[in-house]
Amino acid sequence: MDFSFTQEQEMLRNTTRGFVDKEIMPFIEEWDRTGKSDPAIYGKLADLGLMGVCIPEAYGGSGMDYNSLAIVCEELERGDTAFRTAVSVHTGLNSLTILQWGTEEQKQRYLIPQAKGEKVGAFGLTEPSAGSDVAAMKSTAVMQGDHYLLNGQKTWISLCDVADHFIVFAYTGNQTEKHSAISAFIVERTWPGFSSKAIKGKHGIRAGNTGELFFEDVKVPKENLLGKEGEGFKIAMSALDNGRFTVAAGAVGQIMACLEASVSYCRQRQTFGKEIGRHQLVQQMIANMEAGFQMSRLLVYRAGELKNQGKRNTRETSLAKWQACDFAYKAADDAFQIHGAYGYSDEYPVSRYLRNSKAPVIYEGTREIHTIMQAEYALGYKEDKTLSHTLPAWEQQNSASE
Ligand SMILES: Cc1cc2nc3c(=O)[nH]c(=O)nc-3n(C[C@H](O)[C@H](O)[C@H](O)COP(=O)(O)OP(=O)(O)OC[C@H]3O[C@@H](n4cnc5c(N)ncnc54)[C@H](O)[C@@H]3O)c2cc1C
C-alpha cells in the first residue's frame, strides 16, 4: 500500500489548481449568479489535457492513471461543482464507457476527439418518469433497415446544450422484459430530430448547463449501437462505476473548499474576545470536516487503485460516492454555519457550496440507493459478476499505447 502521490500526479494537481485559481475563481460568483459560464472553458481544459486525463495516449488522452482523474475532479470542484460535473459526464460517464464498450471504429470516431477535448460528450439515462428506477424509461429505438429510429425524452442531463455526442439509453425490446431489453447508443447533436433545452431556476450548480433532450424519429446508424442489443442496462451501471468515482472525488474537493473558507474565517472573526476557531463547538465542525475529508479521500483512492488494477469496483465506488457526498453536504452546511450571517450573503462562497453540494447526494445514485446497495452487499444479497467488457487496467492501457 503506497499512500503517496507520484511526481506526475503532484504536477497535475498544481496545474489543475493553477487553472482553477486563474480561470474559474475570479468569475465564478458572477457565473453562478447569471447561470452562465464561458464556453471557452472546455477548450482551455482540453489544452491542459484535462478532458481525457486517464484515456490512453493511443486514443488521444493523457494516458495517466485513474487516480489522476480523481485529482482533476478534486481540484475542479474546489473551484465549482459545475466544472467537475462537466468532467464527470464527459470523461467518467461517456469517454470511459466508449473505451470500455466501444468498437474500434467508435473509439476512432468518438473517443479520440473527446479525449482531445475537440468534442464534448454527455450521458442521457434519466427520464421524467425514470430516475432511480431506470427500467421505467419510455424511450424506444426501433430497428429499420440500416438504422434505429429513436424516440423519447431525457431530463436532468448535464451539458445538454453543450455536448456534441450523447450516450443515450432506450428500449429496443419489449418493455415488459425490463432491464434486459434496454440498449445504449451514441447519438450526435447535429442529427435531425434531436433538440435540447436547459432547465432554469436550479437550486445549485448554476454555472453548469443541465436540461432536457428530445428525440423525434432520430435516425441512429446501427454502427452506433454501443455493446450489443439488450446490454444497455449493464453499460449504464458500468458507466456509473466511473461517473460515481469522479463525483466522489469532486466531493473531496468540495470539503477541501469548505475547510479552506472556514479555517480562514475562524482565524479572522472574533467573538467574546477570541478567534471563533478557539471555541470548542466551532472546532467540532472543523474536526468533522477534516475527518470527512481524510476518510472520503481514502475511499476514493482505494476505488481508483482497483480501477488501475482492472478489478471490479462497483461496491467500493458506491461506498466512496455515498460517504464523500454526504460528508461534503455536511461540511458545506457547517461551513455556512461557521460564517454566521455572512454565510447568508454572496460575500463568501459558502452558500454556493451548500447549494452545489446537494445535487451530488441525488445524482448518480441517490443517498438512499447507495445505502441499499451497501446493505445488500453486506447481507450477501448482492454480488457482482464479471462483465463481458471490463475497463482496461492502467498498465495495460499504457502498454497498448506504446
Ligand atoms: C444537477 C443534476 C444533474 C444531473 N445530470 C444527469 C445526467 O447528466 N444524466 C442523467 O442521466 N441524469 C442526470 N441527473 C439525474 C439524476 O441521476 C437523477 O435525478 C437521480 O438518478 C434520481 O432520480 P429522480 O430524481 O428521478 O428521483 P427518484 O428516483 O424519483 O427518487 C425520489 C426519492 O425517492 C427515493 N427512492 C427512490 N427509490 C427508492 C428505493 N427503492 N428505496 C428507497 N428510496 C428510494 C430517492 O432516494 C429519492 O429520495 C442529474 C440530476 C441533477 C439534479
UniProtKB/TrEMBL annotation:
Belongs to the acyl-CoA dehydrogenase family. Keywords: Branched-chain amino acid catabolism, FAD, Flavoprotein, Oxidoreductase. Residues 230-375 form the Acyl-CoA dehydrogenase/oxidase C-terminal domain. Coiled coil: none annotated. Its cofactor is FAD. The keyword Oxidoreductase applies. Pathway: Amino-acid degradation; L-valine degradation. One of its GO terms (biological process) is branched-chain amino acid catabolic process. PROSITE patterns: ACYL_COA_DH_1 (PS00072). Residues 122-218 form the Acyl-CoA oxidase/dehydrogenase middle domain. It comes from the Bacteria. The lineage of its organism: Bacteria, Bacillati, Bacillota, Bacilli, Bacillales. GO terms for molecular function: acyl-CoA dehydrogenase activity; flavin adenine dinucleotide binding. The keyword Phosphoprotein does not apply. This is Acyl-CoA dehydrogenase. Residues 6-118 form the Acyl-CoA dehydrogenase/oxidase N-terminal domain. It catalyses: a 2,3-saturated acyl-CoA + A = a 2,3-dehydroacyl-CoA + AH2.
